[in-house]
């Protein structure tokens, strides 16, 4: 099979991502039992987020204590043991090492490559020279692209290989080469390139092999064309039952784009085929649910917990933390009632987005110096990029740590975020690209390799760009700046718009608490609930100011009054 490469467009900056992986079992031998009481609707269920002692623990602990006492008093009593039980996690591996199992000795020798993989794109002459030096028996092109996938090489480097092959073969690129290139695009979350390959394959073939489908599905779910991944899933169904990875990717795509009904429908299909969902798929439901106040969704999550029990599945530590966060999100510690979420409803989000576009970005000239032409240039830039996870006010962040060089400060923040496989946008001014004592060229080049960057004119204001990019990326996108955006809030036409803006700001603005140079980057905790007077009918929750504690207009109280209506005792 071959493909014609004429359909490739220009390649965008890299998208960073980890390959799909499956969470392993928890390593702790402690059992997790149910110990928190929850009332949802008219149902009462018991569940747990903390480790407790297993049944008959008093007897077990007493026996262990006696064994330890006997051991101290008499060395001959060495059969009693207080170590992990036979079925504890990790014990089989330990026994395997003790028994000298040759399968675990790691005798496989590393395979040495006969070609040094390039770290930057090569031109035609450089690829010709590299092929001349190749001593292997396999096809040079296949060998190099295989090594690139193993080392997760840059998409730009792989693209230069494909361009070289196409030039040598009248624009023809073999299927194996194209699919492995697609793997790198998916790995780096370079969605625009995934779509390019998708268009080529869709035009050339009516169906693909399962590996091609899997890569395309995984690559499309992060784009605004995510629903086409569902069409590919339907194509797979025509010949076989899709894998749990295929279902899991489509479920995560639906949740990412706020289509809960599609996600649950796919989940029911998945378990209906007697497939065990990936733990990462189940975790995605809990991650999405922590921002929802929906009884039906909560009941479905409780059903997932029962599914774990009935199938003897054990969540990994990250999954367990997601479950814990869901249980604890938005509940009054006094009465247990749910508090209103800090996140806007889809209708509120669209209303706020349209209002800000109209009254802050397109209007509000008294608060900005940005020209309409530059805003149009920025709009085109944003449309050419995938949705962002975090938008960074580059100049603002660079000045957060006075002891460091500004480009060094910015690079330190961007590098740590890039390691988390986040899609980043750095907003800056053109003067940041001119080498100076505060802005080193090599450090800014590293920033541009790890994030999308847009540098506005030096007279422009950053905030309109920050608001535009964040709101257009979707409700998951956060932003980093020390600016409290009070001027832009004041541009909004009425109290409702200003209240929703402040609510959105509280749920999306990240505040750096530590992150200078080599220290670990940490952010101030974002509340999951809205700090506003609220009622459920029989309860009132009222945030209030403490005496002698000053609070500015952009801050909210930290103390709450919980009022509950008492039910009269029966006569």
From TrEMBL:
Record's keyword terms, sorted: Hydrolase, Magnesium, Manganese, Metal-binding, Mitochondrion, Nuclease, Transit peptide, tRNA processing, Zinc
EC numbers on record: 3.1.26.5
Region (Disordered): 94-114
Gene Ontology CC terms: mitochondrial matrix
Location(s) in or outside the cell: Mitochondrion
Pfam families per UniProt: PRORP (PF16953)
Record has Phosphoprotein as a keyword: no
One annotated GO molecular function: ribonuclease P activity
GO biological process per UniProt: tRNA processing
Catalytic activity: Endonucleolytic cleavage of RNA, removing 5'-extranucleotides from tRNA precursor
InterPro entries documented for this protein: MRPP3_PIN_dom, PRORP_C, TPR-like_helical_dom_sf
Polar residues bias spans: 98-114
UniProt family annotation: Belongs to the PPR family. P subfamily.
Assembly, per entry: Catalytic component of mitochondrial ribonuclease P, a complex composed of TRMT10C/MRPP1, HSD17B10/MRPP2 and PRORP/MRPP3.
UniProt protein name: Mitochondrial ribonuclease P catalytic subunit
Organism: Rattus norvegicus (Rat)
Lineage start: Eukaryota, Metazoa, Chordata, Craniata, Vertebrata
Gene coding for it: Prorp
């Amino acid at each position: 099979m071959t493909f014609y490469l004429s359909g490739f467009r220009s390649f965008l900056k890299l998208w960073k991502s980890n390959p799909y992986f499956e969470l392993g079992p928890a390593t702790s031998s402690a059992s997790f039992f149910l110990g928190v009481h929850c009332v949802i609707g008219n149902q009462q269920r018991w569940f747990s987020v903390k480790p407790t002692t297993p049944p008959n623990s008093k007897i077990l602990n007493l026996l262990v204590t006696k064994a330890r006492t006997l051991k101290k008093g008499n060395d001959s009593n060495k059969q009693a043991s207080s170590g992990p039980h036979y079925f504890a996690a990790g014990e089989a591996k330990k026994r395997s090492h003790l028994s000298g199992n040759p399968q675990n000795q790691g005798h496989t020798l590393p395979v040495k490559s006969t070609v040094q993989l390039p770290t930057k794109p090569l031109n035609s002459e450089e690829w010709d020279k590299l092929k001349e030096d190749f001593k292997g028996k396999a096809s040079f092109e296949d060998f190099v692209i295989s090594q690139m996938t193993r080392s997760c090489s840059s998409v730009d480097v792989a693209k230069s290989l494909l361009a070289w092959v196409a030039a040598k073969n009248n624009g023809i690129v073999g299927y194996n080469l194209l699919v492995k290139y697609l793997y790198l695009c998916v790995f780096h979350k370079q969605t625009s390139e995934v779509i390019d390959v998708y268009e080529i394959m869709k035009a050339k073939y009516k169906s693909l092999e399962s590996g091609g489908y899997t890569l395309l599905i995984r690559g499309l779910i992060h784009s605004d064309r995510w629903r086409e991944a569902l069409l590919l899933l339907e194509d797979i169904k025509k010949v076989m039952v899709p894998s749990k990875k295929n279902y899991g990717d489509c479920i995560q795509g639906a949740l990412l784009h706020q289509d809960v009904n599609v996600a649950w429908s796919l989940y029911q299909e998945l378990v209906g085929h007697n497939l065990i969902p990936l733990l990462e798929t189940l975790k995605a439901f809990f991650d999405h649910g922590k921002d929802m106040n929906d009884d039906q969704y909560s009941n479905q999550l409780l059903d997932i917990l029962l599914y774990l029990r009935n199938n003897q599945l054990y969540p990994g530590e990250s999954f367990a933390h997601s479950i814990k966060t869901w249980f604890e999100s938005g509940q009054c510690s006094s009465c247990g009632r749910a508090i209103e979420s800090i996140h806007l409803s889809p209708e509120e989000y669209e209303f706020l987005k349209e209002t800000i576009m109209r009254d802050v970005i397109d209007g509000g000239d008294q608060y900005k110096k940005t020209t309409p032409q530059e805003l149009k240039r920025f709009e085109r830039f944003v449309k050419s990029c995938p949705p962002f996870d975090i938008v960074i006010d580059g100049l603002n962040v660079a000045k957060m740590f006075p002891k460091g060089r500004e480009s060094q400060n910015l690079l330190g923040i961007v590098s740590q975020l890039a390691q988390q496989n986040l899609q980043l946008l750095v907003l800056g001014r053109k003067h940041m690209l001119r080498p100076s004592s505060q802005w080193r060229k090599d450090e800014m080049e590293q920033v541009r390799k790890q994030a999308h960057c847009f540098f506005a004119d030096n007279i422009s204001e950053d905030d309109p760009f920050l608001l535009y990019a964040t709101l257009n990326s979707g409700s998951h996108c956060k932003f980093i700046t020390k600016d409290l955006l009070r001027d832009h809030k004041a541009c909004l036409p009425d109290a409702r718009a200003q209240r929703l803006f402040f609510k959105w700001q509280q749920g999306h603005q990240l505040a750096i608490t530590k992150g200078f140079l080599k220290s670990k980057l940490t952010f101030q905790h974002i509340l999951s609930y809205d700090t506003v007077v609220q009622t459920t009918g029989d309860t009132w929750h009222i945030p209030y100011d403490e005496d002698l504690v000053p609070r500015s207009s952009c801050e909210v109280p930290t103390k709450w009054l919980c009022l509950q209506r008492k039910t009269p005792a029966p006569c």
